[in-house]
Design a protein that fits this description.
The complex is a heterotrimer.
Chain A: E1 3-13, E2 18-27, E3 30-35, E4 44-47, E5 52-55, E6 57-62, H1 75-84, E7 87-92, H2 103-116, E8 120-125, H3 139-145, E9 149-151, H4 160-170, E10 177-179, H5 184-187, E11 192-193, H6 196-201, E12 205-206, H7 208-225, E13 229-231, H8 237-248, E14 253-257, H9 259-263, H10 285-297, E15 302-303, H11 312-315, H12 332-336, H13 338-341, H14 347-361, E16 377-387, E17 406-416, E18 419-423, E19 427-428
Parallel strand pairs in A: 1-4, 1-5, 6-7, 7-8, 8-9, 9-10, 10-13, 11-12, 13-14, 14-15
Antiparallel strand pairs in A: 1-2, 2-3, 5-16, 16-17, 17-18, 18-19
Helix pairs in contact in A: 2-3, 4-7, 7-8
Chain B: H1 14-32, E1 45-50, H2 56-67, E2 71-76, H3 88-97, E3 102-107, H4 112-119, E4 124-129, H5 135-149, E5 156-160, H6 167-178, E6 182-186, E7 202-204, H7 207-211, E8 216-219, H8 224-227, H9 235-242, H10 246-249, E9 257-259, H11 272-276, H12 282-300
Parallel strand pairs in B: 1-2, 1-3, 3-4, 5-6, 5-8, 6-7, 8-9
Helix pairs in contact in B: 1-5, 1-12, 2-12, 3-4, 5-6, 5-12
Chain C: E1 21-26, H1 28-45, E2 52-56, H2 61-76, E3 81-84, E4 116-124, H3 128-140, E5 145-153, E6 165-169, E7 176-182, E8 191-197
Parallel strand pairs in C: 2-3, 2-4, 4-5, 5-6
Antiparallel strand pairs in C: 1-8, 7-8
Chain lengths: 430, 312, 203
């Protein structure tokens, strides 16, 4: 019988619409009670004074790189980074080596996770074999093996006929199809957002229409097929408008946005730092404003990190050669809190976007603190000042634009299934 | 105080540009002597680090360095261990270990000279990076115009061609504007970079309108290997709409000069006639290139930082 | 290493204060007289004035070379060749991370081969400027002889260079600066030589 008593914090439970100073009692892996001044006997006490107590954050979009690229990250290190970032569950994408397009790979991932990961790991399987965009994967078998969604993330299914069948077939298992919406023929050789910044930098531009054209197509197909389309890492105002309009028409679409697309513009690339290079690229100030407003009004349902580790030597090459992506699990809280600090969203709604909505999109338990819910909890100190040094972080990789920067806000305690897996002063304890 | 590196015109102010041009004028005199050599950079090592092949620019820097009595060493991408896999950092550290007094870098991807400069104690000169900047080209273009016209202030300069992919265009846009000229660009719509108006230039898709009143017509090379069909439907159509010849030059001022950074696709972007005869001044540009690069090496070489990585 | 022939802002230090102690050691009239006297010495020493090439070292040596050539013309009726030779590219102190000194004009309209080159410098001190000028000269050709005119010799020789014709010897201490400048701010107008005492401050 293991009990944890989280005392004196501001409880934020979007499921119950609760934002109040309350205690939370966890017992045997479940939430036992949420109430005033519980004083349980024999419970491990967690002092949450000055902190928020929320359901554990759920990251819809990470790359754990295992199997095949363990030098960048593996399920163990990625899991530790997640715990340190306040996440109790992460969904990991299929662009591993081999690709997760077969139940054997899904099994492998879940097996490693069970052994080594301090947080829950939900595999996202490929939508097409080998991510080649030609033939659908065996979605039923993959779902049975534990896949929670399907995605060719990293690539886009360019053949609209194939995309239509993928969406139609996904209804068999009722899982979302997560898209990386970038029309390859419009992206061309683009490596930064096309605009005055790409002109000044002298680097090939990746235009906003590469995203909006693809999102428009996918929304039309989702509408026609009735499937659940989830748009990954939205970055443009155009995509936001399309999603808003489609949802108003009743299309079953959900969408996510990354912390970096909410806070950094393409001007961050002006020093050619490859730790500002990712797909989709950082966009204009107007795009960032539109994404922030959309997260606040719910058009964008969730924040997802798109945690994409790459080794130092891979990023230390010229800008065009460098692989896309940055890590983000350990910095998601302080960076995303910018919207709360700016008064654009309330803490409760912020928690909904970071926890409840992602869980709901993946059809997993989580995102609630009511009695009976799984004991996945994060205690966040929204005012805590710290300097992020990726060399001292839990991820194997260091490719972050916030390296060396002072940040505000941090997870202080992370609890998964009733076990304390992370404490800010003691590290990962699993 | 001049910075340690010459990475682009965007970072220079007018005073620095004028200083480089004035120095280049004096270096022109050295080029007119019988013994075209001065001992100024004797014992200094200049490394030409060219990741992209280039005979013209590299030779120009080599002659410039040798006229100043420097030891010039050429590293070209194919002949050394500079593969894609070797990181920029490793390359920079190797150069530092050789105590170079200046490193001249050319690369097909923008930003590499800056990354090298950040990791090096030696001064870095950008000889062209992607579509970003080619500062010594713009400076020699400014020198040429200054000599022909006696000034740059108040002139109207029209840049014609594939501005989208051109570092020469960008550097010249910055350079001519800083010295007080009005700059226009003329190109097919597919070759105008996004947001280029934000650099202060007027954009034209009609060559005739763009040339109206121009004192200087700067013609860019069109790379037909890469672009035919993709950005313009054919070379023939490009030559007809944007190729500069004596007939089209009538729209510019009577005493307008015509420039080209080379190499020229004769008969495509520039007629044979203007490539060889006035008011085309291409050979003057080349001659000025050596003097200009001597000036740059004189002003920048040897000014190492006490420790690598440069100023904070 | 300061270039002693730099023209200083009139009477003020770089910090804009009134120069601590400044005295004019040679005024415009004195300069002209000295050059006329030197011209006579040059004539006396050199048989063939047609082979002469008077070359001024910028900045101060330029107006002095012109005046010397004029004086020679008045005395002999012969128009001697005049040139300007900047020595900056031949200096021995262009090291370190500081800014490089600006280049000055070089105009050598006549050939140097087989000529008697009369180098004209304004203030002669260590001898390094003349050494650099000779190196530059040798790159232009092979003079038959080189003779050195210095308007002022202030002492502190560091190289074994001889001055053939001196305007005035002015012994100075190391913390004094000796400068030829235009009295009205330009070297084209009346000239003067001034000694600044920088009050014993080390340079």
């Amino acid at each position: 019988m293991s009990r944890i008593w989280i005392h004196g914090g501001r409880v934020l439970d979007p499921g119950a619409g609760l934002d109040a100073r309350l205690d939370v009692l966890l017992e045997d892996g479940r939430v036992a009670a949420v109430g005033d001044d519980l004083a349980p006997v024999g419970a491990e006490r967690v002092d949450a004074a000055g902190c928020w107590v929320a359901p554990g954050l759920v990251d819809l979009h990470t790359h754990l790189r295992e199997p095949g690229q363990e030098y960048k990250e593996d399920i163990a290190s990625g899991g530790r980074a997640a715990a340190a970032g306040g996440f109790t569950a992460v969904a990991c994408m299929a662009n591993t080596d081999p690709v997760n397009d077969d139940p054997s790979v899904t099994d492998f991932i879940l097996d490693r996770a069970r052994q080594d990961a301090p947080v829950r790991v939900y595999p996202v399987a490929a939508a097409t074999r080998g991510l080649r965009g030609e033939t659908m994967t065996e979605m039923a078998a993959l779902a049975a093996a534990g896949a929670v969604a399907f995605s060719d993330d990293g690539r886009t299914i360019m053949d609209s006929g194939v995309m239509r069948r993928v969406l139609e077939y996904s209804r068999l298992v009722g899982a979302p199809v997560i898209v990386h919406a970038e029309d390859r023929t419009l992206v061309g050789e683009g490596v930064v957002n096309e605009g005055p910044v790409s002109t000044r930098l002298g680097l090939p531009g990746n235009p906003a229409v590469a995203e909006t054209v693809c999102v428009a197509r996918d929304l039309m197909l989702a509408e026609a097929t009735g499937a659940h389309l989830h748009v990954g890492h939205v970055s443009t105002a155009g995509a936001v408008e399309l999603i808003r309009a489609a949802r108003a028409r009743g299309v079953h679409v959900t969408a996510e946005v990354t912390p970096h697309h909410l806070t950094l513009t393409d001007e961050a690339t002006l020093g050619y730092d490859t730790n500002t290079k990712m797909a989709p690229p950082l966009r204009s100030a107007a795009d960032v404003r539109a994404c922030r407003a959309a997260l606040a009004d719910g058009t964008l349902d969730a924040v997802a990190t798109d945690h994409a580790p790459h080794a130092v030597h891979e990023k230390e090459v010229d800008f065009a050669e460098a692989p896309n992506g940055i890590i983000g699990l350990e910095t998601a809280i302080p960076v995303a809190l910018d919207l709360v600090r700016a008064g654009e969203i309330s803490p409760l709604e912020w928690v909904r976007r970071m926890s409840s909505n992602p869980a709901r999109i993946l059809n997993r338990p989580g995102g609630r603190l009511a009695a009976g819910a799984p004991a996945d909890v994060v205690v966040i100190d929204p005012e805590r000042r710290w300097t992020y040094d990726p060399a001292k972080g839990f991820s194997k990789s260091r490719n972050s634009p916030w390296a060396g920067q002072p940040l505000v806000g941090r997870a202080v305690v992370t609890i998964v299934a009733g076990r304390l897996v992370y404490h800010v002063d003691r590290g990962v304890l699993a | 105080m001049m910075g340690r590196d010459l990475l682009g015109i965007e970072d220079l102010d007018r005073e620095h540009i004028e200083r480089i041009l004035e120095t280049a004028k004096h270096m022109q005199e050295v080029g007119r002597r019988d013994v075209k050599k001065v001992p100024t950079l004797r014992g200094r090592t200049i490394i030409n680090l060219f990741f992209e092949p280039s005979t013209r620019t590299r030779t120009s820097f080599e002659i410039a360095g040798k006229r100043l009595s420097a030891d010039v060493v050429n590293f070209s991408a194919s002949s050394s261990s500079l593969t894609k896999a070797e990181t920029i950092l490793d390359t920079a550290k190797t150069l530092d270990a050789m105590d170079a007094d200046a490193v001249v870098v050319r690369h097909k991807v923008a930003g590499v000279p800056k990354r090298i400069a950040d990791a090096l104690a030696a001064p870095v000169i950008n000889a062209g990076d992607g579509a970003h900047e080619h500062p010594t080209q713009a400076l020699l273009d400014l020198l040429t115009v200054w000599e022909e016209k006696g000034r740059v202030d108040g002139l109207s300069v029209t840049i014609v061609g594939d501005v989208l992919h051109s570092r020469v265009a960008r550097s010249n846009i910055y350079g001519f504007q800083k010295l007080g000229a009005e700059v226009r660009v003329a190109a097919p719509p597919t070759m105008i970079p996004a947001g280029v108006e934000s650099l202060g230039v007027k954009v034209f898709t009609s060559l005739r309108e763009a040339l109206d009143g121009a004192d200087v017509v700067m013609v860019l090379r069109i790379q037909h290997e890469r672009l035919q069909g993709a950005y313009v439907p054919s070379i023939r159509e490009y030559a007809a709409t944007f190729g500069v010849d004596r007939a089209k030059l009538r729209f510019a001022k009577d005493d307008a000069i015509v420039m080209h950074p080379g190499p020229i696709n004769r008969g495509v972007e520039l007629s044979h006639d203007l490539a060889d005869r006035r008011p085309g001044v291409v050979l003057d540009q080349v001659r000025n290139g050596v003097a200009l690069r001597m000036a740059v090496l004189y002003l920048y070489a040897g000014r190492r930082d006490p420790r690598p990585g440069g100023d904070a | 290493m300061a270039n002693d022939s730099a023209v200083e802002p009139h009477g003020r230090t770089a910090r804009g204060e009134q120069a601590p102690r400044e005295r004019v050691v040679l005024d415009d009239v004195g300069i002209r007289r000295a050059l006329v006297r030197i011209a006579h010495e040059v004539v006396e020493r050199n048989e063939d004035l047609h082979g002469l090439y008077v070359v001024g070292i910028p900045n101060g040596g330029v107006p002095l070379a012109r005046q010397l050539a004029e004086a020679l013309r008045e005395i002999t009726g012969i128009e001697v060749a005049v040139g300007i030779l900047d020595t900056t590219l031949y200096r021995d102190d262009l090291t370190g991370s500081g800014e490089r000194p600006p280049l000055r004009r070089t105009e050598m309209p006549s050939a140097v081969d087989d000529r008697i080159v009369v180098l004209v410098d304004d203030v002669f001190s260590t001898g390094r400027t003349v050494r650099a000028a000779m190196d530059a000269l040798m790159d232009f050709g092979r003079p038959r002889a080189v003779q050195v005119v210095a308007l002022v010799d202030r002492g502190h020789r560091e190289l074994p260079i001889k001055i053939d014709y001196v305007g005035k010897n002015i012994p100075t201490s190391r913390h004094e600066r000796v400068v030829l400048r235009g009295r009205e701010g330009s070297l084209e107008g009346p000239l003067e030589v001034v000694v600044h005492d920088e009050g014993g401050r080390a340079r």
